Amino acid sequence: MVEQITKGIKISVDTTFEGTFYKNYRVHFAFGYRVTIENQSKDAVQLTSRFWEIQDALNELETVEGDGVIGKKPVLKPGETHTYNSGCLLTSPFGAMKGYYYMINFTSTRKFKVLIPSFKLNAPFALN
To answer: How confident is the model at residue 23 (pLDDT cuts 50, 70, 90)?
Structure first.
């Protein structure tokens, strides 16, 4: 598990390897990740959007951005957490992800960026 705190918002990420399958005559490696967002600040905040960089061992880079996370824009009061599960496909058994969330502080009405720490995606059979 990796963790990082930005402006009182703690991001924790845990990953799993889900398996392999063929799509368009090519093998793909499926990974799951579980993100926990914890508001350790004194203000209520809302997650409004996300940005991800997903890179595999073949140097293929994919960026993903959009509103909220899995269709939600959670509001977190001080001390509250929001956890969600998602996943990605890679064309190699190794990769990494990193990114950030945009959030709004309800006290100051300011938008701010919360970093998502870089985390590795590894298929266990490929490790030695």
So the answer is: confident
Q: Which two three-digit tokens encode residue 86?
A: 């998602």
CA–CA separation, 68 and 35 (whole Å): 13
How confident is the model at residue 92, as a pLDDT?
A: 93
From the list 95, 85, 120, 116, the residue with the least C-alpha distance to 3 is 116
Q: Kindly provide the b/e burial profile for residues 68-107, where b requires at least 16 CB atoms within 10 angstroms of the residue's own CB.
A: ebeeeebebeeeeeeeeeeebbbebbbbebbbbbbbbbee
CATH class of the 2-116 domain in this structure: mainly beta
**Mean pLDDT throughout 41-67?**
96
Question: Looking up tokens 């490790």, which residue turns up?
Answer: 127
Domain ranges of the chain: 2-116
Band of residue 70 on the pLDDT scale cut at 50, 70, 90: very high
Global pTM reads: 0.92
Report the distance separating Cα 33 and Cα 78, nearest Å: 24
The answer to whether the CB of 85 falls within 8 A of the CB of 34 is yes
